[in-house]
Amino acid sequence: MTTDWIATARTLSEALPYLQRYDDAVVVIKLGGHAMGSEEAMDSFARDVVLMRQVGLNPVVVHGGGPMINEMLAKLGVKSEFVNGKRVTDQATVDVVEMVLSGQVNKRIVQAINRQGGRAVGLSGKDANLMICEQTDPSLGLVGTPSKVDPNVLLALFEDDTIPVIAPLGAGENGETFNINGDTAAGAIAAALKADRLLLLTDVSGVKNAEGEVVTELMAAQVREMTEAGVIAGGMIPKTQTALDAVEAGVRAVVILDGRLPNACLLELFTDHGAGSLIRMQPKGS
Known about the structure:
Carbamate kinase, globular, ATP binding, alpha/beta, cytoplasm
């Protein structure tokens, strides 16, 4: 036997306690960045999600799609206004956002999972009143923040061995369609499900300290301190804020991990190595 086969068998054996640990656990995955960038990366991600379902986890995929939205807006000649660097989402824009997210991007992920032998169903937050939204900021138009999340449709899909794939759109109380930030949507869904893990796939290696080193585990209080000190800055702030909101709402832990790594989700869940920065409310065991 080759050393590769022996190493594979050892890896499977060492995964046993993690497989037992996560049996029937809910894991919400925010998909974005590199993992959506190529067919090869998408197929690898889809295979990992199917494996999670096969070994007894309940994975939920929430996706973004900003670059695809920008491309379609440009192709259709829909001009955007910006306020403080943020796009104003008017009715014409949200129509394109819904077309791209619910139609193009969502179905691409569903097909990728089904192609790997899984059973996936595409939804948006508008389906079955999954996410009811309030307007985030009137100056930004139809951008919403989830105010009510009803996870019953997701629980029914779990019972049917089906993997939900969710586009970050929500309904308003008056029938509006709201565009939701993908991380925010994933955090709200994870909180409603009281998920064991929320995995935020990014194009960075994790949360870094003042020396530029990735911190593999952080308590919520440490995240706040690092943000106040300016160590956590820029685009990492909204991700860590999503993590804080989620753990405060009952998610067991959030991991900001490097989606550029092959099999990043499996590394995080089923090995000692991990693949990013884990954020929880209290130290493990407390």
